[in-house]
Design goal:
By secondary structure, this protein is an alpha/beta fold. The protein has 3 domains: about 100 residues, DnaA, N-terminal domain (GMP Synthetase, Chain A, domain 3, 2-Layer Sandwich); about 170 residues, Rossmann fold, CATH 3.40.50.300; about 90 residues, Chromosomal Replication Initiator Protein Dnaa, Chain: A, CATH 1.10.1750.10. It is built from 20 helices and 10 strands. It binds adenosine-5'-diphosphate (ADP) and magnesium ion. The site of magnesium ion has 4 residues, from helix 6.
């Protein structure tokens, strides 16, 4: 075996037998084992940048290095068992694992130092933002109301959140916020948590989690017989924020645990804030008793921002990043991307990168290129007329049947479906939809949308119809 020159922790070169090869290889194998045991996002966030710093052959002690203190504490608390188990599987001489912060930690890439030509990957952006996460509350300090733009699409949700911040646990409990991807739900929830911590100086204990994290926790606790710890974690708090609850549906054991958690908190006047990509009625696999709990509180939706709001968001981001981007560029992005603020941001980030680090002026052509590669292909051109036409054709009735005030039984379902789709796809307001469908009252529309949403949870036939209608609609647009 040949010696290898390696740098020790004081920076001196020392001889060591195949140091790098052995440790790297061993750790790679161990990571391979760990990777299949925890969720992909968790793996990427917490373990991808880990390394095996040392292995004390005599004592059987492995020293695992993490890039920063947060990561070290987090990994130690959450993944120790898995790490030890996997290490032992690969190398049975190991008896103990210790953790350290490595000097080779990936540095936060400071903006203006990014070398030319280096691509700004999502992964890198994630690494940067993950570093700001407080392991106790799971809150990321990058989210605040200073950078949150309020407009007609989110004012109700925003107002409800403000009321809660001033009166935790007493108003709007639970608060259920729903809306499509990239419309600012996580930002709003996290900013609420940060604001509460700040206002009450840690006297109000906040815990932010996602339903995926919650599911992982339940599974892990059951497997490791640590349910008591898990209960404590989720119940010894004053405010539980749970993001993307839709994933909890269809997992009965987790749903039951969540139901107990929910009740324990609720009965003690603890605040619960929930987000989802759709209304409680439209989560097909959600248990009825959870659904009715959610519906018993305040429900607020966030919908698509209008042009002014999109432009305001872009201007806020530009200001925060302290860069200057020409107005026409911002206006163009705001015009082109309408349905997802994350995409709006994604395009802006790439433009900033292009101008600030590559030192090139953006052209119309380049901007179009960026927009095309970033924006998801969604049926952008669907308008209300298309929806009415497609629904009428599908049910083989005339459009007038759909929009006049007649009460024929056979047009009840088509009308309700049309209302539902106008809301679901275009996010039109209830009064606006009522206006389009024979000047009906907005409460009729709300009733129709809720009815269809609920039906969809168990009526396969209706599901099928809606799928076919959408297919037809998106094909023609
Ligand atoms: P969601 O959780 O609804 O999928 P996010 O909260 O992750 O959406 O928002 C996506 C991105 O858009 C985030 O970077 C967020 O900061 C930004 N964003 C969304 N809504 C707003 C808003 N109203 N003002 C400023 N930024 C926003
Ligand atoms: Mg989110």
């Amino acid at each position: 075996m040949s010696d290898t020159l390696v740098e020790n922790r004081e920076g001196k070169l020392i001889k060591q037998k195949n140091y790098i090869m052995n440790h790297n290889e061993l750790w790679k194998t161990v990571l391979g084992e760990i990777e299949v045991q925890i969720s992909r996002p968790n793996f990427l966030t917490w373990l991808k940048n880990s390394e095996l710093v040392n292995k004390d052959e005599k004592e059987g002690i492995a020293l695992v290095g993490l890039p920063n203190n947060f990561a070290k504490e987090w990994v130690k608390n959450r993944y120790h068992k898995i790490i030890l188990g996997s290490l032992r599987n690969v190398d049975s001489s190991i008896k103990q694992v210790n953790y350290t912060v490595t000097s080779t930690a990936p540095q936060i890439v400071k903006k203006k130092e990014v070398p030319r030509g280096l691509e700004l990957t999502d992964e890198k952006l994630n690494t940067i933002s993950e570093l700001a996460i407080n392991p106790k509350t799971n809150l990321n300090s990058k989210y605040s109301f200073d950078t949150y733009v309020v407009g007609s699409s989110n004012e109700l949700a925003f107002a409800a959140i403000q009321a809660i911040i001033n009166d935790v646990g007493k108003k709007y409990n639970p608060l259920f916020i729903y809306g499509g991807v990239g419309l600012g739900k996580t930002h709003l929830l996290q900013a609420a948590g940060n604001a509460v911590i700040q206002k009450y100086e840690n006297k109000v204990r906040v815990l932010y989690t996602t339903s995926e994290k919650f599911i992982n926790d339940v599974v892990w606790s059951v497997r490791n017989k640590r349910m008591e710890d898990m209960k404590k974690k989720y119940r010894d708090i004053d405010m539980l924020i749970i993001d993307d609850i839709q994933f909890i549906g269809g997992k009965p054991a987790t749903e039951l645990e969540f139901f107990y958690t929910f009740n324990a908190l609720y009965e003690n006047n603890k605040q619960i804030i929930i987000s989802s990509d759709r209304s409680p009625a439209a989560i097909p696999t959600l248990e009825e008793r959870l659904r009715s709990r959610f519906e018993g509180g305040m429900i607020a939706d966030v919908s698509y921002p209008d042009y002014e709001m999109r432009l305001a968001i872009l201007k806020t981001k530009v200001q925060n990043q302290n860069v200057s981007i020409e107005d026409w560029v911002l206006e163009y992005i705001a015009t082109k991307i309408q349905r997802n603020i994350r995409e709006v941001e994604g395009v802006l980030n790439k433009v900033v990168f292009f101008e600030e680090y590559k030192h090139q002026k953006i052209t119309q052509k380049k901007l179009d290129e960026i927009i095309n590669e970033t924006a998801q292909i969604t049926p952008k051109n669907v308008n209300p007329q298309d929806i009415l036409k497609t629904v009428a054709e599908f049910y083989e009735i005339s459009q007038t049947d759909l929009t006049d005030r007649g009460r024929k039984q056979e047009v009840v379902e088509p009308r309700q479906v049309a209302m539902f789709l106008l809301r679901d796809i275009l996010k039109l307001s209830y009064p606006h939809i009522g206006e389009k469908l024979g000047k009906r009252d907005h409460t009729t529309v709300i009733h129709a949308c809720e009815k269809i949403g609920k039906e969809l949870t168990h009526n396969q036939n209706l599901n099928q119809k809606l799928m076919l209608i959408k297919e037809k609609l998106f094909k023609t647009c």
